Automatic annotation (TrEMBL):
Keyword vocabulary terms for this entry: Nucleus
Bias (Acidic residues): 323-339
Annotated ranges, domain Brix: 28-261
Basic and acidic residues bias: start-end ranges: 14-24
The name this protein goes by in its record: Ribosome production factor 2 homolog
GO MF term (any one): rRNA binding
PROSITE patterns according to UniProt: BRIX (PS50833)
Family recorded in the similarity comment: Belongs to the RPF2 family.
Amino acid sequence: MLRTVKPRNARSKRAMDARQPKEVEDPRTCVFVKGTHPGELVTNAMKELMALKRPDAIAFNKKNDIHPFDASSDSQASLEFWSNKNDASLFVVGQSTKKRPNGLTFVRMFDGRVLDMIEVVVDKFISMTEFKTPKSTPGNKPLLHFASDLFETHPRFSQLKSMLISFFNGETIESICLPGIEHVISISLSPTPPTLTTTTSTDLPTTQTTPEDLTSLPKIHIRSYTIKLKASGTRIPKVELTPMGPFFDFSLRRHTPPDPELLKQSLKRPKLKKQDVEKGLGKKRKNMEVDEMGNLRGRVHVAKQDLSRLQTRKMKGLKAHFDDEDAMEEDEGEEDEMSEEKKRRVS
């Protein structure tokens, strides 16, 4: 168990406050750890994944004797120590042995503890350098595309989808313009066997204790493309995809489902603030909003007004009796003109 560290000055206190839980979390930092025998294929694959994850990536250059799925070892304690030391919530462990070659283990943390793990096999890998095409800006938020129904129905692929979203998801943003989307990562599956399409998710095993036939599960294909928007003559632009790399072909291996209590805590949302409620994020208050400066403003609706009864500035020339006297004088003038015309006709 880690000891509690008290801040000695304001600078260390700010650093500790930055690591505290937040309503809108910072981008997840991922630590790439090499095992005792990572192998060339796994090492290159980790480098390409780290290139997609930058700048929120940390690489350990030295090899470490770590086995995340071995309960008898101190591997999970080491992961929790590294997580608190580097303020990281994701790990990618590369290990290649004779029994399990070319393995990549994705580990997700919550509150300094291991939440869940999933191991994949690197079946095929094409580096980014083999594609002589433009690359995306490091740190740019990608567009994720999952092209299979198994990501919603099968528990193993649902866990993989959640893990990849946590891995590639960057900073939380409220809106984005079209030119800001520079690349897309497509995750698809091989042709699905008929047994998986007819089986519901409730009939499938969700724990590691039940033996599972991994050969029947389809492979995962991860492809990266750059996006180019061209004029189409309409409001919607024409989209062209250019292979950027890297390309991965993965197969599922071992996994550890999340602990129910720890998962419940990780999905818990904080109570909304008063300003957020007034903005409409929670129980909305009618005709009330908060502007950009944080001031509460309300809108009042009144009935239709009769502008003829509107009180204006009092002026002597606008009084009603002046208007009546002018009308009487005009009527007397018209009567005098008519009498003069009659006299002329008679004469």
